[in-house]
Amino acid sequence: MGGPAYDCLTNPLGAVRFSFVNALSSGYDPASSVGKDWGVVDLFRHYFSDESAISQVPILDSSSIKWVQPKTLVRFRGMIQDMLGNEFYAGAYKDDSTWRTNKYSDVSQFPEGSSTEIQVWERRLLYCVPVPGKNQWTECSSQELKNRFLDLTGQNREKRVRVDEEMTDSMDSSTLEAGRNGSPFKKMKVGEATSSASESQVPQTSGIPPATSADSLPCLVKIYDSPESDLKLNDVVEFLGVLTFDPIVMMDTDTLDENSDALSEAESVQMPSEKVPRLHCLIHRKLETQHFLHGSSLLPEPKSPQIFKEIRESLMKYLTGLLGNDHIAAQFLLLHLLSKVHGRVDNVAVGKLSLNLIHLNKESMSIFGTQLSGALKSLLPFTQSIPLTIEYLNTASFGPKKDYGINRLMPGVLQIADGTHLILDETELQPGTLNSVGVENANLLKNLLECQKVEYDFQYYKMEMATDVQMLIFSEGKSNIMPADLVLPLQPSQVNSLEVITPETAETWRCYLATCKSLSHSIGQELQQVVENDLVAARQTDRSLGSQDLSRLLTMARMISVSYGETTLSLEHWQMVLELERLRKERLK
């Protein structure tokens, strides 16, 4: 027996049409379905049910866009930077007595004439960008994948043509004749039906928000058959879908029908298709750190604490060397790197653990700060650095702002993904005066540090968006701008040469950090009373301790436990927390 009449990788639209025909034969009614999925999602979920299958799909980026083929299957990994509303399109139509579909396509085609039966369906538009601060090691496109994909498309090209001829060539050829002999078929860009994304006036300026870097490739993702609550702003998502992009073909607006008051989708959202590729999403998944690991997954469940202990020791040795043999600073740095927001009580983000390393000046920052920053880039998927200078604070745009002139959310420095590590360098801060922009930016940073929230300016109102960002501050004295959870004087004893780490070791440490952050944690009943008594005693000894200080100690206890691969706090690890806190306070005297 032969294989299927389509290939999901190189001819996904063939799979869509094939499943549509099958659904029609099983009683699917396009007239009453309102575009509801007819089995396409399950088909592709089954086809790409494991990582080995997904890895065959090329990742769309500024490099692969040069060789991937239009109308083939691609993946786009990025952050949802803006949500552009909904768009209506001609999703299905009758060709004589036969239903056909335009779903997952940029071009709507149907017979012209008042008697044509057309079903207008709806889809959502998401403007996505590469994750801000994404580090190079997370990239997984390769020359081998390129060669494999190009070979595969070449092998399937002849088969694809045969399948398309059988299923749609009569329709396509009629459409082609439309521009020559006035065929009864009409072909138009999607969105020529009314679009909620095009209701505002279209200005002459480009509506493409600035990219995160010169070689960043944004993507306009079109979402079908997914509830609105499933995806939200700033989510990091992997979209798998049909690519429609051809940099050679430029949109010619002069060829539009003068009598048509319709507006093409590309114009309506002011993102020309030759600059912003379209991806018609078939399936998607939200990404965690482990999805960026190469050839590895999370470490085994904590049944073998010896594995965690050995990896912890090697990573601690590396961090200690970076910090000039300051073992205590390395301990606190590791706890900081394992922190994450795991709950919210009122305005308190439970689990955050920002760290302010002090006694750093320009000279020492150029040594220890630079080495540490480079090391974190090799260990964490997303890292960013912000220079805390008067000039930068007074001129940069930190908070995202809605521009109603082009109906876009313009990104700010602080529109970043959950799990991002943020370094703030205060060592070059000189005396000066903050203007109104600087004051606003300083307040945004402080709110992010204290509450893990970023304020978005929608012009007529402001809204706080919850986030989860690790924040490391370098400064000479205790930062007045950034009141961190932990303040620790750095006390290096020597400058070490930068240790060369093998790719295998770096990957092991990445797996370790990702695994530890994913572990749950609890305090057993037998230890809970001990912890409570110690916290009461600590507060009686130091009346300045507040509830946030006590919460910080509990967060440190959680980080100590998971760093050893344990999900329940032990007495030994609780005592380690108290000892670390004692040593930190001694340094601050």
TrEMBL record:
Region (Disordered): 163-211
Native organism: Arabidopsis thaliana x Arabidopsis arenosa
Gene Ontology cellular component terms for the protein in this record: nucleus
Key words, A-Z: Nucleus
Main location: nucleus
Signal peptide (from-to): none
Ranges of compositional bias, category Polar residues: 193-207
Protein name per its UniProtKB record: Mini-chromosome maintenance complex-binding protein
Name of a matching Pfam family: MCM_bind
Keyword Nucleus: yes
Subcellular location(s) of the protein: Nucleus
InterPro entries, A to Z: MCM_complex-bd (IPR019140)
GO MF annotation, one: chromatin binding
Any GO BP annotation: DNA-templated DNA replication
